[in-house]
Description:
This protein is an alpha+beta fold. The chain has two domains: 116 residues, Aminotransferase class 4, branched-chain amino acid transferase, N-terminal domain (D-amino Acid Aminotransferase, Chain A, domain 1, 2-Layer Sandwich), CATH 3.30.470.10; 159 residues, D-amino Acid Aminotransferase, subunit A, domain 2 (D-amino Acid Aminotransferase, Chain A, domain 2), CATH 3.20.10. It has eight helices and 16 strands. The strands form two sheets. Strands 7, 8, 9, 10, 11, 12, 13, 14, 15 and 16 form a ten-stranded mixed β-sheet that branches. The chain has a six-stranded antiparallel β-sheet with strand order 2-1-6-5-3-4. The chain is globular. It starts with a strand and ends in a 9-residue tail after the last helix. The site of ligand PSZ has 15 residues, from helix 6 and strand 14. Ligand PSZ binds next to helix 6 and strand 14.
Amino acid sequence: xxxxxxxxxxxxxxxxxxxxxxxxxxxxxxxxxxxxxxxxxxxxxxxxxxxxxxxxxxxxxxxxxxxxxxxxxxxxxxxxxxxxxxxxxxxxxxxxxxxxxxxxxxxxxxxxxxxxxxxxxxxxxxxxxxxxxxxxxxxxxxxxxxxxxxxxxxxxxxxxxxxxxxxxxxxxxxxxxxxxxxxxxxxxxxxxxxxxxxxxxxxxxxxxxxxxxxxxxxxxxxxxxxxxxxxxxxxxxxxxxxxxxxxxxxxxxxxxxxxxxxxxxxxxxxxxxxxxxxxxxxxxxxxxxx
Length: 290
Ligand code: PSZ
């Protein structure tokens, strides 16, 4: 049997149902997280729970559980579902109430849902790298909130998929912001560069792990806005996310990045990332860097 979390309880997944007047369903009025599970263990769990708290706070929904309670619930869910390699999806909405744009004054209880999904590491893409397109960033100005409102992101990802690409790299005027579901990095003359964590992008947990690893090693890193031109002239380009990890980008709008193969600093960061996974979650059965 497969289980899910609905509010404070772990129940049969097929019995986890929410109200049609839930504000998540009606308005996308809520926040979410995706947490990676390797070897049955949650990777960077505290960081994801902290961001979940921050996102919900920024739209005035207060967490009805402590972070410890939530962590215990998620860990129990992973155990009960016998999940080894996959993700936990978790979302919280403002709750159910008669439809009205303004929040109901009182007496509304947030709806918290979580479930698990098996998901292998994308080892082939991590080896070869992926293709991308460049696209205008048409999203709102609070992309730092991990909100359920994802239409802008979905439209961008769909355009990429229609061109057999893995991701859409978005830009506002000349400045590259982020992917539709990832952060974007360039490497130029040995320096790793990525957009600073401001309201134009999501502060990726993976991005922060990568920055910490640069700082802890000899790799120079700069968080600063960079232009489309810098992207196009970069020595290496990669993206990062919970499920994509450190993913080499080898093509942008049909143009190869350098010679069209993953670069040495990207490879080094992939190796460091796998080390961090193994430190937190134990030995990986399918390593990209051996
Ligand atoms: O399974 C998937 O396709 C996932 S799991 C996480 C994401 C996609 N995306 C996270 C994300 C994002 O949606 C945007 C707009 N920017 C950056 C990221 C990367 O954030 P982390 O590293 O925390 O996953």
